[in-house]
Write a structure and sequence with these properties.
This protein has a single domain, classed as Rossmann fold (3-Layer(aba) Sandwich). By secondary structure, it is an alpha/beta fold. It is globular. An eight-stranded mixed β-sheet has the order 1-7-8-6-5-2-3-4.
């Protein structure tokens, strides 16, 4: 299934400003620190793929909720994984839904530690009781053997994405299950994603694409 959603010209800057205000309120209400950009050069990364990572730029909570609503799934049947999860903001929003588990994958030590602190301190709705940040390179992450929703907000460059997709295809072949890929980025290797075995375009908008790997 493919659908096209659009936003009227001139509306996007207003939406972005509203998101920033909501973000500020969100952090203070929930006693966390999820906003703010961070450059890789300011972080500790023990990985040979550091040259292929991107700067940390978090996703506003509202955007995550819009994406998860688009899926129209029973969340309790799926696990959720955020690649390049940074300070864990997406994890906290995903935990508002009754996922089987919510996992963040982050290779920068400082961001991972901030995410762990945010998970501990978070004061808000949490329907998923298993929320954690994993400190590792995405190419070494073992996919859970359950239906999955995978979230990518421009976390790394083509070379790393290629290996992550290869690992995903192998995992899907070993254990067929329903998998959604949510990808947000101004530019990303769409051809690489669609060339991966079993990956289909599910939905496309101006700001994100959703892919699906059926069971």
């Amino acid at each position: 299934m493919e659908r096209k959603l659009t936003v009227a010209p001139g509306v996007r800057p207003i939406i972005d400003w509203i998101d920033r205000c909501r973000w500020w309120i969100y952090d203070r209400q929930h006693r966390v620190e999820t906003s703010g950009k961070t450059g890789l050069r300011d972080l500790t990364v023990a990985s040979s793929n550091v040259a292929f990572g991107n700067n940390f730029h978090p996703t506003p909570p509202r955007t995550v909720r819009v994406l998860l609503r688009q899926l129209q799934i029973r969340h309790s049947d799926y696990g959720f994984v955020d690649f390049g999860s940074g300070k864990g903001g997406v994890l906290l929003v995903a935990a508002e839904y009754p996922f089987l588990e919510v996992i963040g994958v982050e290779f920068a030590e400082e961001l991972h530690k901030t995410a762990e602190r945010n998970i501990r301190q978070y004061k808000g709705l949490r329907l998923c009781r298993s929320v954690r940040s994993v400190h590792c390179d995405a190419v070494h992450f073992d996919f859970p053997l359950e239906p999955l929703v995978l979230y990518f907000f421009n976390p790394f460059q083509r070379r790393v994405m290629e290996q992550v997709l290869l690992n995903l295809v192998r995992s899907h072949q070993m254990c067929p299950r329903d998998i959604f890929l949510l990808y947000q980025a101004p530019h990303y290797p769409k051809d690489l994603v669609l060339a991966s075995e079993g990956v289909l375009l599910f939905q496309q908008t101006d700001y994100f694409d959703i892919y699906r790997m059926p069971a």
